[in-house]
Design a protein that fits this description.
2 domains, 5-stranded parallel β-sheet, 3-stranded parallel β-sheet, 8 strands, about 10% strand, globular, lyase, magnesium, Pyrv_kinase-like_dom_sf
């Protein structure tokens, strides 16, 4: 009640433990706080906070138009309500090296457990679109080094994403990933791998865990957790899945209401009032409020 009961530093420790464990873990994307609560209640290990999903929810394309302040507030709102570690998309860090250091500290203060930086140039593009450009390896190393210097909690996970596979090839992407690990990255996010063999090659070449981005309508096939685990992947994210599920249902529902003049035929597929109240712990808030309202001075002299 009244937000997460597990402190942020403990959630960061948990993220580290998950990455060091033997099992692949799943972080579905949350588009808002109640979505994060549902992810936790469904038994997942963590929550991913997608920049692409956040941009879309604002009616914007994923080309770096959202600001650091907006994304930090979004990350704080989600991290506040879940006991799971939250892992957020930091795009290119919102500026030069000093800006990247500040970005890390802002996310630490917001209760986030980790973030990923990417090696695209600004303005960035969605990782599964064509026409991406990447900065030099040396420039990305500067970003990662600045993030490491800015970090105050050693358990805050710093992940380096490389979008170089599409333009430079797999071998170059592996070389970049090695340089990013040397600069201090705790986790590597190889974007837009073409098959399981490429994930396996990346995992075998590195001494840190890798993640797989299982986004729909992208460059990668939608592999199962068993397939990804066998390829050496440690973390899988589903960045825009819940947004797409919700938007698909909303669009179809609006069409029904417009056509039928009532939502009656949709009710069976809706979250019930009872389930909503259970998800947000309404009863605990009510109990807390009643305790405050009924406060007595008796035995409190």
């Amino acid at each position: 009640m009244l937000g997460a009961q597990t402190p942020a530093h403990v959630r960061r420790e948990k993220f580290r433990e998950l990455l060091a464990g033997d099992k692949l873990v799943q972080f579905p994307g949350a588009i808002n706080p109640i979505n994060a609560q549902l992810i936790e209640q469904a038994g997942f290990e963590g929550v991913y906070i997608s920049g692409g999903a956040f941009s879309a929810a604002q009616g914007l394309p994923d080309i770096g138009l959202t600001t650091l302040t907006e994304v930090v507030d979004h990350g704080r709102n989600i991290s506040r309500v879940t006991n799971l570690p939250t892992f957020i998309d930091a795009d290119t860090g919102w500026g030069e090296a000093m800006n990247v250091a500040r970005t890390v500290q802002e996310f630490e203060d917001a209760g986030v457990a980790g973030m990923h930086l990417e090696d695209q140039v600004n303005p960035k593009r969605c990782g599964h679109l064509d026409g991406k450009e990447v900065v030099s390896t040396a420039e990305m190393v500067k970003r990662i080094s600045a993030a490491v210097k800015g970090r105050r909690d050693s358990n805050f996970v710093l992940c380096a994403r490389t979008d170089s596979r599409a333009k430079e090839g797999l071998d170059a992407a592996i070389d970049r990933a090695k340089a990013y690990v040397d600069a201090g990255a705790d986790l590597i996010f190889p974007e837009a791998m073409k098959d399981l063999g490429e994930f396996e090659s990346m995992a075998n070449a590195l001494d840190v865990p890798i993640l797989a981005n299982m986004t729909e309508f992208g460059k990668s096939e939608l592999f199962t957790t068993e397939q990804l685990a066998n390829a050496g992947v440690k973390l899988v994210i589903y960045p825009v899945t819940t947004l797409r599920i919700a938007m698909g249902a909303i669009k179809r529902g609006l069409e029904v209401i417009r056509r039928e003049g009532t939502q009656e035929s949709l009710v069976d597929g809706m979250q019930t009032r009872a389930d909503l109240y259970d998800t947000i712990d309404y009863a605990a808030y009510n109990e807390f409020d009643a305790a405050v309202f009924n406060f007595s001075q008796e035995n409190h002299s």
